[in-house]
Fold this sequence. Notes:
By secondary structure, this protein is mainly alpha-helical. It contains ten helices and four strands; from the N terminus they run H-E-E-H-E-H-H-H-H-H-H-E-H-H. The longest helix is centred in the middle third of the chain and has 17 residues, at 97-113. The two termini are 30 Å apart. The model has no long low-confidence stretch (mean pLDDT 83).
Amino acid sequence: MIGTFSVDHSLLNDGRISPDALAKLTEFTIERQKHQCGCCSIKAKKKIRLITRERNTKPSKDNIIAVCPACFALHNGGMSIDGERIGSMILLPQLTQVELIRFWYVAAYYRYFDSGLKKSHANSYLNELSSLSAAVVRLNGTDNPMYFASLLKSFKESAYENREAALGGFRWLPNWNNEIFKDTLQAYNLGGSFLDDAFLAELTD
């Protein structure tokens, strides 16, 4: 179930595939996806990571996808490639998880690279999204994604496959001021905007 907060989907440093094979598989997969994230569909040419469609499965060309850093963390229990917590859980049933990440990318992009009205609006949107974690704290005592990840890891496989229903309106929100994402946005921006005009128009008009 790609596009839902998940655990144990990473193909990094887990011994299932050698570094050389991982590099070749990454290149093959991102070209197959036409340089788009296999989860949120954003243009992605750098800092690409691989995940499996199902957790703890043997990797093959048919069951892996290439994803952007945000979607990698989404499928890694809210953790970065280095094992750092990035983001928090918020209550936002009005958007799917993928819709939230796509919107977050646009807002974070303007937060860092625009100096006018769009930056001001982006700051307001990001602050409002962050404030939605308060409802999660009231309901669960914490907005830490590691808490939710530990719950998912305890699920039996049948329950895990139905995790979207179990999570309800809880969504994972990347931390917009985390240096990991700032560096990622800068890397994309150096090669030209990774947000095409149609994508921007869809979410900002």
